[in-house]
Each structure stands twice: as C-alpha cells, then as structure tokens.
Amino acid sequence: MPLMNTSHWRGCALMLFGLLLFTGCGEPTKKIVLLINTEDAFWNAARAGVKEAATDLKFGDAKYEAYVDSNVGQAKSQIEKLTSYLARKDIVAVGISPYDAKNDGVAEALKKLKDKGVVIICFDSDLPAEKHNLRDFYIGTNNIKAGKVLGTAAVNLKPEGAEYVQFVGTDAQQNAIERMDGFTSALNDKFTQKERMLDGGKRETAKSNVTSAITKYKDVSLLVGIWAYNGPAIADIIKDDRDKYTGVTFDADEAAIDHLDKGNLDAMLVQNPFMMGYLTVKAAYAKLNKDEATIKELFPKLGEPGGDIRDTGLKLIVPVKGSPLKAEQFKDVDPELEFMLLPAFQDWLKKYKLKSS
To answer: Taking a C-beta distance cutoff of 8 angstroms, is the pair 114, 144 a contact?
Structure first.
C-alpha cells in the first residue's frame, strides 16, 4: 500500500479540524444585559426580577442569558460600557437607566446599538421625549407622578407649609429631574424650596449634605430624599430632633425601613425594581422573537402617545402609629397607588425574599 504524501495528510488534518470546529461551536448564547448606574442594594430586587424572568422564559433551553451589569455613576463610563456592547456579537438587547439624560455621547452610543439591531429598553429612568426614538420602550416608574405623590404626602404631613431641601445624586438624570419637579408641582404657596443638593451618588456626601442644609437654612423643616440612600442619610441626621424635622423619601432602602420602623422617617414612596428587571427581560425577549401577543399585553396602547411606556406602579409606606396620611388623600394624584402600613410592606418583601425595594 503506497504511503500518502505530506500534503495529503495536512489536508485531511485541516478537514478534520474544520469538522470538529463546526460541530463543537453552535450559535452563541444571546445576551440581554441591564446596565445600572451604581452597586446600590436597591438593584438587588431588579436582579431577582431578571433571574425570575429568565427562569419563567426557560432561557437555558432557548440559549439566552440575562444579567445585570454595573456602571460607576458617570456618563463617561456608561458610554464606555455601551461602546463595549457594540463590539460584541452576543449582546442582542440592552436595558439602560441613562445616567445623564441629555448627554450626546450616551445618545450616540444608543443609536449605534439600535442601528445594529440591538433592542434598547430604558428602565428606572427614561430619555427625554425628543430622544424616545433611540429606545424601543420605557419600563419603570412614572417619575413625574411619583414626585406628585410624595409632594402630596408632604402637604398632608405639613399643612402649615415648610421650607424644604431635596437631596439627590445628580440633577442630570431624567428620573431625578422628574421626581423633583413633580414634588414641587404638588405643593402650595406655603412651601418654599431652598436648594437641590447633589451628592454624586456617594453616601457620605449625602449625609454631610443633610447636615449642611439644616446648618445653612435655619428654618428648613422638610427634608426630601430622591434616591434610595438619601432616606437613611436624612434619618441619621434628624432622628434626635424629630419635633422640628419631617423626612420623606423615595425607595425602601434596608436602613430606611428600619428608620421608618423606629419613627425617624415619615413616609417612603416605594418603586418596584423587581418588576422593572422582570419586565425589561420579558419585553426584550418578546421583541427579539417578534412575539406580538406579549408586546400587546405589555404595551396595550403601543402606537399611541405614551404607549411605549409601562408603569411599574408605586407603594406609599407609612408607620403603624401616628401618621396623618390616609389612602384617600392620594386618589386624585394616583388612583392605583398601593397605600400600605409598614408591617404589610415587610410581609411583601419576605414573600419575594427581598430586604429592600
């Protein structure tokens, strides 16, 4: 039997390698990524929602994966994250809470992703109206309405009026803008805003801002937390002078829940980050797979003004004893608001194995 020449063996080896490569490497797992801005405990509930959606949609069988990625609280790093997604073939959908709503770099990066065919969903915080064409949907809180709910709470807690300060990480993010403007719009002429104080997402700065506010403005008696960590920062400072100060806040940070239980805060307006995570994954998967029935279920008024927005709802949490707040005070501003005493809310958290929301 004649021996095969070297070139023949080389050709067979190449054919065998190609066959192994083809059979061993199928379609890559498609990724749905949700990009958050800080590693705050607020987002643990969103992670739980993402995980449950992936389970319900059987992502393991469908060769999909959904996960949460984190920014460091700056528009520049958010742009870098989006640019890295653009270079990847496996990322097919991006959920984003835009850090700076008016930043042209963020808008440009989102446009490139969308032009590539990546599904874009804003959650938690939307883009301004003139940039809605850069995303497919918004899923999260109606932040203007939420601000009005918290403002209505303040009016009923302080019927005599008050000077007040609002505390937030940045006034460039759309949810911050809308919450603060919504809050102010619900007040009457007995209230005077003294300042909106920014902390850059840093908890220590948030706390020192509260101290600065009550030192600088001697007549301020109402302190308003806009982001999750602002509530505990307020409560830590005012807890020993509750006769003078009223504290209301967005979000149920674990420490804020404890402060509300101890009487150091007067009300918490709670969003639903669990459902933000869950529905963002569900909507992205439906859009990618042209599941019109699910899209119709999630966005029944799609095609109409505001029809690409899914409101995930609000809960107003008050202490068990002594609060003047009642459910009927909020019917005009948000008929669907869930008004809850703290123990009922704590039971809700336990149901979903959460410590914050």
So the answer is: no
State the amino acid at position 292 in one-letter form: E
Fold agreement (30-141+273-289, 143-270+314-351): yes
Given a cut of 90, is residue 353 above it in pLDDT?
Answer: no
> What is the second-level CATH architecture of the domain 143-270+314-351?
3-Layer(aba) Sandwich (3.40)
Contact at 8 Å (CB) between 316 and 91?
A: no
Number of Cβ within a 10 Å radius of residue 171: 13
Which region holds residue 313: left if phi is over 0, alpha if psi is between -120 and 50, else beta? Answer: left
Q: What is the pTM of this model?
A: 0.88
Amino acid at 167: F
Mean pLDDT of 68-87: 92
**More confident site: 3 or 352:** 352
- Model confidence over 144-165: pLDDT tens digits? 999 999 999 999 999 999 999 9
- Does domain 30-141+273-289 correspond to CATH entry 3.40.50.300? no
Report whether 58 contacts 65 (CB < 8 A).
Answer: no
Spell out the domain ranges in the chain.
Answer: 30-141+273-289, 143-270+314-351
The mean predicted confidence, pLDDT, of the chain is 93
Is the model's pLDDT at 309 over the cut of 90?
Answer: yes
Burial readout 37-50 (b: 16 or more C-beta within 10 A, e: otherwise): bbebbbbbbbbbbb
